[in-house]
Design brief:
Strand order of the largest sheet: 1-2-3-4
Oligomer: single chain
Radius of gyration: 19 Å
Helix content: 40-55%
Order of helices and strands: HEHHEHEHEHHHH
CATH class of the largest domain: Alpha Beta
Number of helices: 9
Length: 187
């Protein structure tokens, strides 16, 4: 869910009892039309809406050997099955120093001709505790609502929030909205 919210929303859901067991990746992007990607309110849709990106997720302590193993496996699928991944995100729950991350990304990129990005524990934690992503972590891990931040909403704030919720619902559900309608809804 964090990857969908912070990197790209067009991810295929993980299937099977263990992540990536049958397709060699834990998730991947799927192509979407320009009309849909132009409505994404984060990121730039023109790349990830058309390119094929692979995602590998690991909780292994030895992240360094795991990233090399996963990347080579995914490159093999690229060559064998013509998947044409142009970017790979490797997510680990381990802390990785900036130098090691940059060195490994550069080395793998040069060796395998694939744009590799290593996202570590520090980035994941930063992403969880920023914006509304804390709610995603609480829901995903079945945590108590005690972990959620309590806020006091004043009457004017409530009116604004209800209006914003309405705008977001229209944008999320009405796929044939024109740009002028979007401006009218937001105004």
């Amino acid at each position: 869910m964090l990857a969908e919210k912070t990197i790209c929303p067009n991810l295929l859901p993980q299937t099977g009892p263990t992540g990536g067991g049958d397709s060699k990746v834990d998730s991947e992007t799927y192509p979407v039309s320009d009309d849909i990607s132009s409505r994404w309110y984060f990121g730039v849709g023109n790349k990830n809406s058309q390119e094929r990106w692979a995602f590998a997720i690991s909780a292994k302590k030895d992240w360094k050997s795991k990233v090399k193993f996963d990347v080579k496996k995914i490159v093999g699928v690229n060559n064998e099955k013509g998947r044409n991944y142009v970017k790979l995100f490797f997510m680990t729950n381990q802390s990785v120093s900036d130098k090691k991350r940059a060195d490994d990304e550069d080395s793998l990129r040069k060796e395998l001709d694939l744009d590799v990005r290593i996202l570590d524990r520090n980035l994941i934690l930063n992403t969880v505790f920023r914006d509304d992503n804390k709610k995603i972590a609480i829901a995903a891990f079945g945590l108590s609502s005690d972990f959620a931040d309590d806020t006091n909403i004043e009457p004017n704030d409530l009116i604004r929030k209800l209006r914003l919720d309405n705008v977001e619902e229209v944008l999320r559900t009405k796929h044939d909205t024109t740009n002028s309608e979007i401006i009218e809804i937001v105004s």
